[in-house]
């Protein structure tokens, strides 16, 4: 899942690099649909009333062996669309689609820290939601607008290597589950 809805965002580009550089035997797919997901409302999370977009998100997460969230940083935290997705995935509490699911958070941001605050907040929310958060799997790429102004992340050898390491670590945990 990518927390930026903007076409051409550096986090969308990082997701593309992840898909293109996934190791043999690892299928990475980017979930699209966060923009149509309504804000979580427990009144709508009852049998017969769950929005189709929430059902689709839960189904996709449930079918995945692991989750990789790619987040920009907005005002020092994760974007609302990403937090909202975690909220939908956390329910029903204790049995939601993220329960015990190996999950990692990476991203890039304009600032000098590469979005670490947003990533920390996403990890915290995922942990509370019941996911098996891989705390040691991290990738924060600072100064994204400058760094990727003329070079797509998929063409950046350092980023490609870091993404491969992230995916290898996620794979190891997912295969052990």
Number of strands: 4
Radius of gyration: 16 Å
Order of helices and strands: HHEHEHEEHH
Instruction: Give the % helix.
Output: 40-55%
Strand content: 5-15%
**What's the number of domains?**
1
Name of the CATH architecture = 3-Layer(aba) Sandwich
If you average the pLDDT, what whole number results? Answer: 97
Global geometry: globular
Structural class: alpha/beta
What is the name of the CATH class? Answer: Alpha Beta
- Main sheet characteristics: 4 strands, parallel
Number of helices: 6
> Can you tell me the residue ranges where pLDDT is under 50 for at least 5 consecutive residues?
none
Give the CATH superfamily. Flavodoxin domain
Describe this entry's structure for a reader:
The protein is an alpha/beta fold. It has one domain: 3-Layer(aba) Sandwich (Rossmann fold). It is 41% helix and 8% strand. It is built from six helices and four strands. Strands 1, 2, 3 and 4 form a four-stranded parallel sheet that branches. It starts with 9 loop residues before the first helix and ends with a helix.
């Amino acid at each position: 899942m990518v927390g930026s809805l903007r076409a051409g965002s550096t986090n969308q580009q990082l997701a593309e690099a992840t898909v293109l550089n996934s190791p043999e035997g690892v299928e990475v797919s980017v979930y699209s649909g966060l923009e149509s997901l309504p804000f979580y409302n427990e009144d709508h999370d009852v049998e017969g009333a769950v929005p189709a977009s929430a059902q689709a998100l839960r189904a996709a997460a449930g079918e995945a062996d692991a989750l990789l969230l790619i987040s920009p940083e907005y005002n020092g935290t994760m974007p609302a669309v990403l937090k909202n997705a975690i909220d939908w995935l956390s329910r029903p509490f204790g049995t939601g689609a993220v329960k015990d699911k190996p999950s990692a958070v990476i991203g890039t941001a304009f600032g000098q820290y590469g979005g670490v605050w947003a990533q920390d907040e996403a990890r915290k929310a995922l942990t509370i939601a019941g996911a098996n958060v891989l705390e040691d799997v991290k990738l924060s790429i600072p100064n994204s607008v400058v760094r990727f102004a003329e070079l797509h992340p998929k063409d950046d050898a350092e980023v490609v290597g870091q993404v491969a390491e992230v995916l290898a670590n996620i794979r190891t945990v997912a295969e052990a589950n």
